[in-house]
User: What shape does this take?
Amino acid sequence: MDVIGVIPARYSSTRFEGKVLAEILGKPMIQHVWERAKQSLVLDALIIACDDERVADCARGFGAEVVFTAKAHVSGTDRISEVVNPIDVKVVINIQGDEPLIHPMMIDTVARAILDDKTISMATIMKRIEDHKEINDPDVVKVVVDKDNFALYFSRASIPFHAHNSEVKVPVYYKHIGLYGYTKDFLFTYKNLPVSDLEKIERLEQLRALQEGFRIKVIETKYETIGVDTPQDLEKVKKYLEKEGIQ
Assistant: This one.
């Protein structure tokens, strides 16, 4: 296979337990994620990786392929690695189970970037920030990139910092959307990297790769998403879908 998508769906969550099963307009959140990912044109397979029978039963109920993984995994990357280890595949897409507004085009562009350029081993997505409240929101991760759209840094802080005497009057800020693509080989390299100081400080796993000197391609999207970390985020998603008339 060329590309496989894996949705890590852990039931336990410190801030919002069971959020992957939270109802959004009559469907569990994980079903919204799966249905959107299924619209991808490049995925040869799509698997939900879970550690709880409640999630597994729910996912099988709407027709998803499910792999039950160890509860001990500390990250989605570890959970995905367990799933893809025995599979012969070139590119693995990590599709977050708490991103019910994920657009299939994001999946396709990340996968194609890696398939088409052998120098890219990891890629992700960014979106121009339009709501200024997000700039200083630590739950919205910001990213800055170089001239070739490779990540320079990810942060919960507002980067780039806008100095009061800057010649740039209206800076552009980008938020990071937590969808990742990796070559299978790099996924296992990444999984085995030591936890970095920057990762500990910011609580952002992708900084592990940057601090070790690996490059992350960042692809801009025009599509909006709302990651669900809290019940308040869930309400934002519901209001967005109702406003857009999306079921």
